[in-house]
Amino acid sequence: MAILEILQYPDPRLRIKAQPVTKVDDALRKQVEDMYDTMYDAKGVGLAATQVNIHLRLFTMDVSETRDQRVCIVNPEIIHKEGTQYEGEGCLSVGGGAYDKVERAMKVRLCGTDLDGKPIEIEAEGLMAVCFQHELDHLNGILFIDHLSRLKQQRIRDKIAKDKRREQS
Ligand code: GNR
Ligand code: NI
Predict the structure, then answer these.
(1) CB 92 near ligand 1, within 6 Å
(2) Helix (H, G, I), strand (E, B) or coil at 74
(3) CATH at residue 150
(4) Residue nearest to atom 6 of ligand 1 (CA)
(5) pTM higher than 0.85, yes or no?
(6) Which pLDDT value is given to residue 169?
(7) Is residue 36 part of a domain?
């Protein structure tokens, strides 16, 4: 079991575009185990590799209340989007208590591979669909706050800077 450090905004490494996974091997499976440990420890519903400074296209997720329904998608791609929803989002990489509504597709169809390299296709709605879109954004160096107004982004940056000053004094 290993808990990895979750990069915190405004760390520029959160802006790195992740590269496709070319080989699923034991080393990668070990990194994914560490990502699950980190995600459960932080009580997150999802974790993109980018957030733990691994710049490969994969994420872990568990949207169940029982915290026992693991989903890991390698090289995810959204192949279909439908409708819109406007739900509150937060992010393990954005402090300052940042939480706000973001416009997302209501339904998405995602393809990719599992940890055996086997192709998978999943359709999701609601929270799981939001989470898929949020994690895919991370892999492209995008944060949920990028979808908010300039004013809201500035408020979040100010709050984070203020919290950091408090921590240091
Ligand atoms: O734990 C998380 N909760 C969450 C809630 C609403 C919308 C998206 C998310 S993802 C977030 C974990 C995280 O930062 N994943 O990248
Ligand atoms: Ni996030």
Answers:
(1) yes
(2) strand
(3) 3.90.45.10
(4) 89
(5) yes
(6) 86
(7) yes
